[in-house]
Write a structure and sequence with these properties.
87 residues, mainly alpha, rod-shaped
């Protein structure tokens, strides 16, 4: 470890600027991509459940295709929200 020189002052300053830019990038991603996507996904999931409950008479009385499609949409919709927030 003696062979490694200390980071010069300009290197520390650049590292701090780079770190701040990294956080700004994450915040911009959250504000302009993740939050609108979350609102859209939750709205579409709500419409899907509403349509299947009221218009299809409770998933057409247990139609396997409609039930599995709704389950698929809920599971992967929720998982995709976490992907958008980069968790």
């Amino acid at each position: 470890m003696e062979e490694v020189d200390e980071i010069p002052y300009i290197g520390r300053k650049l590292h701090k600027i780079g770190t701040k830019l990294w956080y700004v990038r994450w915040i911009l991603n959250m504000v302009f991509a993740a939050i609108p996507y979350t609102i859209l996904v939750l709205a579409l999931l709500g419409i899907n459940i509403f349509a299947n409950m009221l218009w299809n008479d409770w998933w057409a009385e247990g139609n396997l295709f409609l039930v599995t499609q709704t389950a698929y949409n809920v599971i992967f919709g929720i998982h995709s929200i976490f992907l958008m927030f980069e968790w």
